[in-house]
Design brief:
Length: 400
């Protein structure tokens, strides 16, 4: 892990506590992403005021916030980072890059609007409003979700803060929303829609490893699709039983056999473009027909569903329609899902995350970087690859 073990990364992420800093901050830096009408992406650090919290609000000194694939969509947008250039100073860097003309129409809602970045994070409550709930959080280490986390300070409603268990650092809790709740949401969706097992693509990711731990613990069949032998070994080493390498010449047979054994008829696809979603549906159809007692020219009556929740491949989704008529493809996003299951359902999932924060839902980071280091071209090139096993953690209060 780039010369840093997990404990070192956690200590770095929390190291700001050892630095002298006012607990009554007036301003703090915030990372902003701007796409101009001229077709240029601009990344910069902007000082923003830190106001007094309202009665039911707290101010959190953000000490750890991950760079997730979902963050990159807002941070970099569709910009061609091969054109990226650095300017400004070491303490106030600015990055610019060209946005391809063909992508500008989709960017219309955000043109010339400087946008804060960062879905989730964790830190220490340094100021609290007058309410009992807010005052109870003063000095506590909390996790948060709600955007604008690539900031030195974040004002939040007390009710939106998740108190971390004793001994947990901000680094422990920085990623306790998006990946954990997404993986739990996949299992919850499976149960609610009447499926009994799952398929997951790009399965060696941090999220994919969490999903494996959940399914192993809960006794759920999980078919993992990866892109090389190294990723397959990584999953098998943590106990995964069904791992299929999409680059193998026997991939379709391997996938079909795994589907026959598990009975999986639901897939969550992080890839999006290309042939993979269609291949999954085809293999599901073959697996279903192996157990069919009656032939139907319309294909199996077993419903097969693929949900796309990512877009690692932004190209067209190719379907060969060799999987009958009982199938569906749709999109799946965490926040609409949480709204669908309601406050009680979401609270139940969050409670499990807290209970298993250092086991099932532990995250591992390659590097801990400052806000300034987030805007260094070599680091952008590294985290923009979204490579398996390379996960960056930002400590906004780390010295640049």
């Amino acid at each position: 892990f780039g010369g840093q073990d997990d404990d070192t990364a956690k200590n770095d992420a929390a190291g700001v506590r050892k630095q002298p800093m006012s607990e009554n901050p007036q301003t703090g830096l915030q990372l902003r992403s701007l796409i101009k009408k001229s077709g240029e992406l601009e990344l910069s650090l902007v000082p923003v005021p830190v106001g007094e919290p309202g009665a039911d609000e707290v101010v959190v000194r953000v000490e750890a916030t991950p760079i997730n694939p979902s963050d990159l969509g807002l941070l970099l947008g569709p910009a061609d980072m091969r054109t990226a250039k650095a300017s400004g100073t070491a303490t106030n860097p600015v990055i610019t890059a060209s946005v391809p003309p063909g992508a500008m129409r989709a960017m219309a809602p955000r043109l010339d609007e400087s946008m804060p970045v960062g879905n989730e994070g964790a830190g220490v409550v340094v100021k609290a409003g007058s309410s009992e709930a807010a005052q109870a959080l003063l000095g506590k280490t909390v996790a948060m979700i709600g955007g604008a986390m690539y900031s030195q300070f974040r004002t939040m409603k007390a009710s939106d803060c998740l108190v971390l268990p004793p001994g947990a650092t901000p680094a422990d809790g920085a990623s306790c929303f998006v990946n954990p709740l997404t993986s739990l949401g996949m299992v919850e969706t499976m149960r609610r829609e009447g499926h009994t097992a799952l398929v997951h693509t790009a399965a060696a990711s941090n999220l994919g490893q969490m999903l494996n731990k959940i399914c192993i613990k809960d006794g759920i069949g999980l078919v993992n699709i990866v892109r090389n032998a190294e990723q397959a070994k990584l999953l098998r080493d943590i106990g995964a039983k069904y791992v299929c390498d999409s680059t193998s010449p026997t991939f379709m047979d391997d996938l079909t056999n795994a589907l026959v054994e598990t009975g999986a008829t639901l897939a969550f696809d992080a890839i999006g473009g290309g042939k993979l979603a269609g291949q999954i549906l085809t293999c599901m159809e073959i697996a279903a027909n192996k157990n069919a007692k009656v032939y139907s020219r319309y294909g199996s009556s077993v419903h097969k569903q693929v949900y796309m929740y990512g877009m690692l491949d932004p190209g067209p989704t190719e379907l060969n329609r060799s999987f009958g008529m009982a199938w569906g493809i749709g999109g799946w996003l965490l926040f609409p899902f949480l709204q669908k299951i309601g406050p009680e359902g979401a609270a139940r999932l969050r409670a499990r995350v807290v209970a298993e924060l250092k086991t099932t839902f532990a995250s591992h980071y390659t590097r801990v970087i400052s806000l300034q280091e987030t805007l260094q071209l070599p680091n952008i090139a590294a985290y923009a690859k979204r490579a398996t096993g390379e996960k960056f953690l930002i400590n906004p209060n780390k010295a640049g």
